[in-house]
Amino acid sequence: MSTLKRFLKDTLIYGFAAIMPKAINVLLVKLHTSSLSTSEYSVNTSFYVWAAYFNVLFTYGMETAFFRFFNKEKDKGNVVSTSFISVLTTSIIALLVLLLYKNEMASFLGFSNPLYFSILVWISILETLVVIPFAYLRVTGKSKSYTLFKLLNILIYAVFNLFFLWLLPKQINLTSTVNHWYNPTFKEGYIFIANLIASSITFLCVLPLILKFKISFNFSLLKKMLSYSWPVLVAGIAYTTNENLDKLLLEEWLGKSVMGAYAGAYKIGVIMSLFILAFRLGAEPFFFNHAKEKNAPVTYALILKWFTIIGALFVVFIVGFMNLISQLFLGSKEYYTALSIVPIILIANLLLGIYNNLSIWYKLTDKTRYGMYFSIFGALITVSLLYLLIPSVGFIGAAWATLGAYGSMLVLSYIFGQKHYPIPYDLKKIGIYLGLSISFSSLSYLKFQQNYFASVLFLILFLGIVYLLEIKELKKLLLKK
Q: What is the rounded CA–CA span in Å between residue 168 and residue 124?
């Protein structure tokens, strides 16, 4: 019982640590879109797109390899030291090379200001250096310390965003000191500085733990870890491409203003990702813990159906009240020009969530290479559709490309999964709920925008149909309890 309590407590703590940063970032969208023009917001978006790529490249799957080999090897200290020294060495090399050629790299990546690229490099390096220490805290059960550092990081970032983008602009022309050093044309740069401050303080907080690591290096162990981690690296690059290439191509082909509006509106769709993340944090441990039970496949099928129901309900609600929600999350009306992507992105994220649920088959059967294959396939679909659709239909084509990529990954995972680990998913009902969600949200957007009576009616109809189809199952579940 004590083990179960510890598991539940750690799940809640880690869930809080994972969701809170994303939730705070969503809340900061209002501040950013109020302070930055769409062109300035595109610079901010590009910065974090490249940050995502750097994060994958600099860590090269070593975090996942660390978890695997820490539980596998007898000498735990050797795993900690070898993995950290490896990441530290490659980070130092990357730092020196990238800063040496910062002007050339800044130009190549599309940064008009080389300072932005330098800040990006430093942030990426600092965040890379805490990956193994954070992993160590998690694997040794120090969930409170891990959560404290994660929350400290996002809170410092949020506070300095408010300081630079809200408090100081109010003081301009009121205080000569502020006028002297605050540059109102450097607004997106202050967001990056806020991030650099947060990453630096987090690194300093974790440094005492790093200094306690023993100094030892096992080249044979490193080779095994790299052999394990490279598919994770490839999958990470593919996933990052699925998530972010659309923004880079929109900026190049349609301009900064269009990309900025697209990126701002895209953030509304990210609300769905908070639900997916919360669900995954609770579901994944449950999947593994119940894998040996006879009725495990039936349970997994039930979980996916209810995930789809809740996710589909989210889509109907967000699209039905999109105008109100956009006023909460988007500051300037410049960003409203791209709101047409929101229904598509919501459905795309729902399909991604279903794909994450389906992926349990290759995790349980140790066929994780399939995750890499599916991610690569999704990236190829993304690239193909972006090049095909953006020139012909504009930014809406980027949203359709995202939907196409996640939809194709979902279908592939289902087909292969049923061969290797059959699960009796209720495809008929899942299809009904997805169809209802798409139909109701399409009607809300195309025919009944700002008609909140219709929006409420669609929600009631959706819930009513769920009730009629699932009442017997709900009664059985309640009786079992």
A: 27
